[in-house]
Amino acid sequence: MPLPHRALAPEALGPTITVGEILVEIMATTVGAGFLEPQSLIGPYPSGAPAIFVDQVARMGGGAGIVASVGDDDFGRLNVDRLRADGVDVSAIAVSKDWPTGSAFVRYRPDGARDFVFNIARSAAGRIRPTPAAEDLVRRAGHLHVMGTALSIPGARDVILSAIEIVRARGGSVSLDPNLRKELLTDSGVLECFDQVVGVADLLLPSGEELFATAGLTDEATAIAKLLESGIGEIVLKRGEQGASFFGHGLPRIDCAAFAVDEVDPTGAGDCFGAAYLTCRRKGMTPEAALLHANAAGARNVTRRGPMEGVSTLAELTAFIAETPRR
Ligand code: ATP
Ligand code: MG
Predict the structure, then answer these.
(1) 125 and 48 Cβ atoms separated by less than 8 Å
(2) Tens digits of per-residue pLDDT, 239-278?
(3) Which ligand sits closest to the CA of 267?
C-alpha cells in the first residue's frame, strides 16, 4: 500500500525555517582547476546554501528563519546584516566568541564544474547545536527545509531531527534539497540522517544526479515513481539551463523550459529556485505557477556574481517572467 502523502503547510501556520551553514564565499576571478597557485580572488560574499535559501524566502515575502552560527567577526556581521535587512528572523543565529565564520573558496573549471576549499567543520558553522533560541524558532515554524549540505554538521543534524518531530507535530511540513557535495560527505552519520529526512519529506528538490543517488536508481522515471510511492508529496527536478520538471500525485508531469539568460555565476541557483517554489506553494499557488516562478528565481540568480546577490522579490520575478524569452 502506498503511504498517504501530505500537502505543504500554508504560510499562516508559521515561518519557513532552515538549519545550517552561514559562510562567506570568495571566488576565483579566473576559470581553471583549483587553488594550487596564487591568483586573484573576489569576495567576501554572503553565502551558505541554507542562508541563500532562507534569504530568498524572505525577499519574496515569506516568513523565514534560520538556526545557524557565525563568528564574532566581519564575515559573520556581513551575513547577519544581509539576512536581517532582507527580513529573515536572525534570533537563532548564535555568535561564537571562539570560532571564526565559515568560508568557501570556489573556482570554476572550463566545463562548469567547481572546485571548493571549505572551512566549515572547524568554523563557527561547525558549532551549530540545539540552543534555547533555536528551540523557540522551531516551535513557531510552519515548515522545515533541510539542505543536504547542513547534514555534514553533527550538531545541525541534532537540531534538524528534533525540528522534524516538533514541526510535524504541529501540522507543519518538510522539504529536502539533497545538495550533495562530494567534499561534504564526511561520515556515515550524514547518509543515515539523509535517509531519515527522505523518509518524511513532503517536497523533494533534487538535481539530476541527486535524484538517482536519493532513489538508488539510475532511470529518471523509475526513480521518480519509487520516491512518490514512498510517500513524498511532490518532486521538483532541477535541470540547470534545461529548466525543471514537476511530478506529483494525481497531477500530470509539468515541464518548464529555462529562461534564456547569460550565466555569470551559477552558485545559488538551486537554492533560490527551491525557496521560490516552496514559498509560492505555501502562499497557495498551483504547482505550475510555482514552477514558473522558481525557474525565474534560478535564472535571475545566475545573472549576478555572488551566490546571494541575485535573490528576487515577487515583483522582480513577475517583471522578469514578462520580459525574458525562454530557451
Ligand atoms: P546548486 O546546488 O549549484 O545551487 P542545483 O544543481 O541545485 O544548483 P540548477 O539545476 O543548477 O540547481 O539550477 C536550478 C534552477 O535554476 C534550474 O532548474 C533553472 O530553472 C535555473 N537555472 C540554473 N541555471 C540556469 C541557466 N544557465 N539559465 C537559465 N536558468 C537556469
Ligand atoms: Mg543544489
Answers:
(1) yes
(2) 999 999 999 999 999 999 999 999 999 999 999 999 999 9
(3) 1
User: Which of ligand 1's atoms lies nearest the C-alpha of 244?
Assistant: 18
Residue ranges in the chain whose pLDDT is less than 70:
1-5, 182-186
pLDDT at 238: 98
For residue 205, how far is its CA from the centre of ligand 1 (angstroms)? 11
Q: Which atom of ligand 1 is nearest to the CA of 295?
A: 20
- pLDDT of 94 reads 98
pLDDT given for residue 82 in this prediction: 98
Distance between CA atoms of 51 and 124, rounded to whole angstroms?
Answer: 14
> Which protein residue has the closest C-alpha to ligand 1 atom 20?
295
Angle between helices 208-215 and 220-229 (to 10 degrees): 50
Q: CA dihedral in degrees (183, 184, 185, 186; nearest 10)?
A: 100
- Cβ–Cβ < 8 Å for 101, 25: no
- What pLDDT is stored for residue 186 in this prediction? 66
* Dihedral, 150, 156, 157, 159 alpha carbons, nearest 10: -130
Ligand 2 center to 100 CA (angstroms): 25
Q: What is the pLDDT of residue 1?
A: 47
Question: Longest Cα pair distance anywhere in the chain, in angstroms?
Answer: 59
Q: How many residues does the chain have?
A: 327
Helix (H) / strand (E) element for 265: namely none
50 touches ligand 1 (CB under 6 Å): no
CA of 93 to the centre of ligand 1 (A): 28
Q: Ligand 2 centroid to 222 CA: how many Å?
A: 21
Check pocket membership of 52 for ligand 1, CB cut-off 6 A: no
